[in-house]
Design brief:
Number of strands of chain B: 27
Oligomer: heterodimer
Shape of chain B: globular
Largest sheet of chain A: none
Structural class of chain A: mainly alpha
Order of helices and strands of chain A: HHHH
Number of helices of chain B: 16
Distance between the termini of chain A: 21 Å
Radius of gyration of chain A: 11 Å
Largest interface: A-B, 24 and 29 residues
Strand content of chain B: 25-35%
Number of helices of chain A: 4
Radius of gyration of chain B: 24 Å
Chain lengths: ~80, ~525
């Protein structure tokens, strides 16, 4: 499974949208219906799945799939 | 004759001295403190507060859960001082307002919130001292700022301990959303809190592991995780971040957790998304850490669906009901005495009555009043009866049920009470916002906005530009707010809201005759 699909499969656990129907401009809370806690839990799963460490404050500024993928890429490159 | 929080703690130290009272993570290592050690730290800080001249004063705390936070809090409430726990996630201007309105003369501040220091020093003239909640020494940024270690040193060098407070003395002021848009400081006495701890009819073996996952400035967390947990001799473990809730259940392997419904809903999504081939027992061990048996929920109504689903994973959920004004528990389901859909039987110290369906409560855990708000106090407390703002009934077996609300407050499933007016006042400042009503939907807040047509016409804006402009304004607003006060839905109205004869917007009609939220 490629990374983006793996990422979207995690997103899909928290919403009714299938990974293949997700577009990168979708916003977690407004478009996908994440609760504030869904988003925190999702970030925790990203840490475990991709072996990264998120700083809570930076991570909470992320609102869309595109921004989250960008942050993931950045952290993996740094790591 | 009444009870003191100090009585509870002293008895715990006596009965459970060597049992671990608190465990927490420092990087990846688990650190711990026994009941005897915790009591030692609490007494030292209490003596320090006395030595520094804070007898009888109000002392605020800003920070998320930490051992330093809880021992400082306990030091304040076991002496002749009043603790004012504040929500560390609030914008700086709101925190400054609450520090000033609560007449706090000292502040315990978490290092994570160190950025507030400058503004707090400049704008809170009554503050005489700020202690950073960390063990290391603090760089001398200002003569008013010191570390917790320095306060402890003052306590170690002093012989005198604070006198025992009286049972009717205010122990804590907890801020809660006001229906008029201004948060209110709920004054809870020693007896209010201590009798609430006592009246919750739950027992557990000493050393039972609890995981504290709620915000510590909330009464439910403060009284039921910490004070109740300590009264039982439980080992209370600190969840350092909601990002790591599931991971930390694996680390600490709790047996009991207090949650708000939103947490139950989120965890259920993870359970439901798992491969159905995985046996439920194995999945439960993976998600809950392997020993979890009980979740107590409160703060908002929980759909009974989750109670049935979690039972399949060996976890029993017991729903309760309370509010800060009642210290906070009013009723709760309990192991061996529960009814799904209800909020349990009222506590032994809570008398219940109804006024046009509204639940009224009287008893030893009902607050003294709102701090410096006599009018609001008189509206809520009448002849000793607290008007909850919730509608409900008692069934033939004595279980309490809720079926509506009297006041405008929005109760989100994370237990946060939101005053729509408070947020509407802020959103009304947007240049494109003509009229605004905030509603609670799908676990979040939706802003229904009728644009300011004069501005729209003057700028010649098209429909999609109006929407984009308002969304941009909301994004800016959201950045300055804690997640529970952020707006996650937007409806741009084509027509103004319907108003009553007194020109007030009719809230109940705000949803009618308009498109669905995007």
């Amino acid at each position: 499974m490629n990374q983006e699909l793996q990422f979207k499969t995690i997103v899909a656990q928290y919403c009714e949208v299938k990974p293949e129907d997700m577009t990168n401009d979708m916003r977690f809370r407004e478009d996908l219906g994440f609760s504030s806690l869904d988003f925190m839990s999702f970030l925790g799963e990203l840490e475990d799945t991709f072996d990264i460490e998120l700083e809570e404050e930076n991570a909470l500024e992320v609102v869309s799939i595109a921004q989250a993928l960008e942050l993931l890429d950045k952290l993996q490159q740094e790591g | 004759m009444g009870m003191l929080i100090r009585d509870i703690l002293e008895k715990s130290e006596e009965d459970f001295a060597e049992i671990k009272a608190v465990k927490w993570l420092h990087k990846k290592e688990i650190l711990e403190r026994s009941y005897h050690e915790l009591a030692g730290h609490v007494v030292t800080i209490r003596k320090g507060l006395l030595a520094e001249g804070f007898q009888g004063k109000h002392i605020a705390l800003i920070g998320t859960s930490s051992v330093e936070w809880i021992e400082s809090y306990l030091a304040v409430v076991t002496g002749n001082t009043v603790a004012v726990p504040l929500d560390a996630g609030l914008p700086g201007e709101d925190l400054i307002d609450l520090i000033n309105r609560s007449d706090a003369e000292a502040l315990f501040l978490s290092p994570k919130n160190q950025a507030l220091l400058g503004a707090v020093l400049a704008e809170c003239p009554k503050l005489r001292k700020i202690w950073m909640l960390k063990e290391e020494e603090t760089e001398a940024v200002d003569e008013k700022v010191a570390s917790l270690t320095e306060l402890k040193r003052a306590g170690e060098n002093s012989q005198d301990d604070a006198k025992r407070p009286s049972a009717d003395d205010v122990a804590t002021i907890i801020f809660t959303s006001g229906t008029t848009g201004k948060s209110k400081g709920v004054m809870l006495t020693q007896n209010n809190l201590a009798t609430n701890v006592n009246a919750v009819n739950y027992t557990a073996d000493p050393g039972t592991v609890m995981l504290s996952v709620l915000p510590i400035h909330h009464a439910f967390c403060l009284v039921m995780d910490w004070l109740k947990g300590f009264s039982l001799g439980a080992t209370v473990c600190i969840n350092d971040s909601l990002l790591h809730l599931v991971k930390n259940m694996g680390v600490f392997q709790p047996e009991v957790i207090l949650m708000v419904p939103m947490m139950v809903e989120t965890i259920y999504k993870r359970l439901a998304a798992a491969d159905p081939a995985i046996p439920k027992q194995a999945l439960a061990a993976n998600v809950f850490g392997g020993r979890l048996k009980i979740i107590f929920t409160g703060g908002a109504h929980l759909d009974p669906y989750y109670i049935e689903r979690f039972a399949e994973y060996g976890v029993n959920i017991y729903e309760g009901y309370g509010m800060s004004e009642c210290s906070p528990v009013i009723s709760s389901n309990m192991p061996g005495d529960h009814k799904p859909g209800s909020i349990g039987r009222p506590l032994a110290n809570a008398e219940i009555a109804f006024d046009n369906g509204e639940i009224l409560v009287k008893g030893s855990s009902v607050m003294k009043g709102y701090y410096q708000m006599p009018e609001e106090t008189a509206e809520t407390l009448k002849d000793g009866w607290l008007h909850t703002g919730d509608k409900g009934y008692l069934d033939e077996d004595g279980f309490l049920f809720i079926n509506g609300r009297v006041k405008n407050l929005i109760i989100l499933s994370n237990g946060e009470n939101i005053s729509p007016e408070e947020i509407e006042n802020k959103l009304a400042l947007g240049a494109l916002v003509g009229e605004v009503i905030v509603t609670g939907e799908n676990n979040g807040l939706t802003a229904r906005i009728y644009p300011d047509m004069e501005v729209v016409q003057a700028k010649g804006l098209k429909e999609e530009e109006v929407r984009a402009g308002i969304q941009e304004f909301l994004d800016q607003y959201n950045k300055s707010q804690p997640t529970y006060r952020q707006i996650t839905g937007l409806v741009v109205r084509k027509n103004p809201f319907v108003r009553s004869s007194t020109k007030k917007i009719k809230r109940q009609e705000a949803l009618i005759d308009e498109p669905l939220p995007m």
